[in-house]
Amino acid sequence: MSKAINFEQAGKRVEELVLTLNQYSHEYYALDAPTVSDAEYDRLYRELVNLETMYPELTKQDSPTQRVGDALIEGFEKVEHSSQMLSLENAFNLEELEAFDRRVEQQAKSSHTYLSEMKIDGLAIAIKYENGYLVQAATRGDGRVGEDVTQNIRAISAIPIRLRDNVTCEVRGEVYMPKGSFVKLNKERDEEGKDIFANPRNAAAGTLRNLNPKITASRNLNAFFYTLVDPEEHGANTQKEAIELMNAWGLHVNHEYECIQSIDEVWAYIEKVEKERQDLPYEIDGVVLKVNEFSVQEEVGMTVKAPRWAIAYKFKAEEAQT
Ligand SMILES: NC(=O)c1cnc(N)c2cc(Br)sc12
């Protein structure tokens, strides 16, 4: 029999459990460094569910028990993005990267560095937080209008429903399905006689578009965040600072980036990443090269379709698995 606990004691214990469980999730998902076993997490989670059942008025907005609602999603409302979600021009060889570098040099008035980042093969997402709380999530759509997938994003444990700082911001990244989860899901679907997904990207997209957040919660999706909207308003002056700031707020970022002085070094990074690619627990389809300094990004500007200050180097498509 669980010992009787009065309302005041329960309030203190609920507060403690929410802080502890959210810290454990931060360590597991944002830091990739869990400090407790899944069994210990589940034990504390069950204690929290019991207390919230006993005293529903004690349930907190950022309780991990509030991620997955019971209701099915009626449909996906349209959401107009605060600013256009970018697409990138592609490069397929060193010559095209060098041509990109020459174009940047022609436009840039100040000295700059490049940041090379992994190009995650998932689906783009924009998430708004108000005073630290997740309030809206939308798919990229056509870049200007996406679909509201807030209920499904809340069901992804790897995406915090409350940041570690009470900040109002918009962040953008890529939702992806880890390779291991993809293999497990397709095995289950095959055993159930269901169609299997062709690749992790399709599995992630299909999961985000399903109408039952409980299914989303079961699929172990993850996300990497790589864009902070209006970064200089948050005190970040470079892409590197923006990534580290988002990570400090509790968002999962990809730390495999490299700050590069000249285009010659980018090829070494690309060759390194191309070698690592098979062993990564997530799919990548290339490398994104960006001017690191936001002031220089503004000098270099945009074309109608895409930024002039960034380019995506695409790997050759992998041989189809026979
Ligand atoms: N690191 C990045 O900027 C990044 C990573 N992965 C992606 N699929 C994309 C897409 C755009 Br558009 S940017 C970007």
Q: Can you describe what's shown?
A:
This protein is an alpha+beta fold and 322 residues long. The chain is built from ten helices and eleven strands. The longest helix has 24 residues, at 7-30. It is globular and about 70 Å long. It binds 4-amino-2-bromothieno[3,2-c]pyridine-7-carboxamide (1X7).
Chart the SSEs and their pairings.
Layout (H helix, E strand, L loop, with lengths): L6 H24 L7 H17 L23 E3 L9 E2 L2 H14 L6 E7 L2 E8 L2 E7 L5 E3 L2 H5 L14 E8 L2 H13 L8 H9 L4 H6 L3 E7 L10 H10 L9 E3 L2 H14 L7 E8 L2 H7 L9 E5 L8
Parallel strand pairs: 2-11
Antiparallel strand pairs: 1-6, 3-9, 3-10, 4-5, 4-7, 7-8, 10-11
This protein binds 4-amino-2-bromothieno[3,2-c]pyridine-7-carboxamide.
Q: Give the ligands present.
A: 4-amino-2-bromothieno[3,2-c]pyridine-7-carboxamide
**Helix and strand element order:** HHEEHEEEEHEHHHEHEHEHE
- Name the poorly predicted regions: none
User: What is the helix content?
Assistant: 25-40%
β-strand percent reads: 15-25%
Class per helix and strand makeup? alpha+beta
> How would you characterize the largest beta sheet?
5 strands, mixed
**Outline, from the CA principal axes?**
globular
First-to-last CA distance: 56 Å
Radius of gyration over C-alpha positions, nearest whole angstrom: 21 Å
Strand order, largest beta sheet: 2-11-10-3-9
How confident overall, as mean pLDDT?
95
- Please tally the helical runs, counting DSSP H or I stretches of 4 or more residues: 10
Query: Can you count the beta strands?
Result: 11
What are its keywords?
322 residues; alpha+beta; five-stranded mixed sheet; four-stranded antiparallel sheet; 10 helices; globular; binds 4-amino-2-bromothieno[3,2-c]pyridine-7-carboxamide
